[in-house]
Amino acid sequence: MNKLSKSTLWFLGGFIAVYVVLQILVSVGVLNSFWETIIRIGAVMAIVSIGLNLIYGFNGQFSLGQWGFYAIGAYAAADVTYRWDINKSADGLVVLVLATTLSSASILWLHKRISQVRGLDPLSAFTIYLTSTIMWSAFAVWIGISAAPTVTSLLNLLPAAVAMQIVFIIAVLFSAVLAAEISYLFGLPILSLGSDYFGIATLGFTVIVKILLDNSDTLLGFVEMKGARGMVGIPKVTSLFWVFFFLMLVVILVRNLLRSSYGRAIISVREDEIAAKAMGIDIAEYKIVAFVIGSFLAGLAGALYAHINGFLHPNTFNFIKSFDPMIIIVFGGLGSITGTVFASFAWALILEGVLRLWLPQGFEAWRFVVYPLLLLITMLLRSSGIFGNYEIPFLRQVLPKIRQSKTIEAEKVVEVQS
After folding, report:
1. Is pTM, for the whole model, over 0.85?
2. For 143, which of 27, 234, 391, 393 is 20 to 30 Å away at the CA?
């Protein structure tokens, strides 16, 4: 059994220590509910920003669609837990699990088959994937409605608090999967675009999602979402423990991904697409991989955010707010997970906490003047961000030692003997 490295132990110990200290401060009343909420929002912003850093900072794809996938994860998870808590039904949970599972299976199956077809253009492949996804989703709705009463009865056998936590965790995970699936379908036709055009297309996606949420009660048929009036009655189950637990998992996941062969290929695409292609790397595949994983993290963060305040409004996900994670990763440092986490908590504590309290009432909008100025100053004085490419030892890539040839080793032995 391999022992954990010293950097790993320091990381895990430090993460747990920070959580324990914060939990104690909350328990004894040193941190009130306002500051606890700010810290939870900071952790959520760290997750969504790490996903964007994977897409832009490590893969080099300028994306403004992260906020759209964040919204998808938020509303999908909120709808599931709302139906369970208010309607006392698991129909939303069953449909979400079945739809995402069947759609994912069909996408993986089609990917193996379509990859063997030469000359198939992206739009044709997109049409095939989209048709299959719609069919399987419709089938999942039909089966899910029939199976929901059985699942509801099984969950009701558990204590109410335990059942709520189970529904919450499943909703969070599968809402993230839903965001990843949509990102895969959306990415097929647009990832072939250049970086600037890709950014414009993803910004358009965010605008489309916001408009759909404005009309979710009429156009999409989700009456409980209440459209432009905002969705209320969402269970507030995102605790300090859950945001820190998921943030730790996300940091470990991205760290291990970047150290793998997939991660090195993702970074090589950012450095030089032509050189990467010459080395046999499938550029389109690794762009999709980075985009899907980053969108998965956005959906995960959105699902957690939905259960912090118990209220969602489409204006929270407008295109102006979509620049927040972009500003965070540039401020912390492109390609730096450490910088992203630091900037996310700084963004929450300063902009949503300190400035909101210090500025006179009615001047809250000045917060949105302060942080562009701070970003501008940072880019002028330190264009690589506060942390640049720095990472804590746990996240730092450790290169293997250069192996010396036997000839050099033999020469050293002769020198020692003489």
Report:
1. yes
2. 234
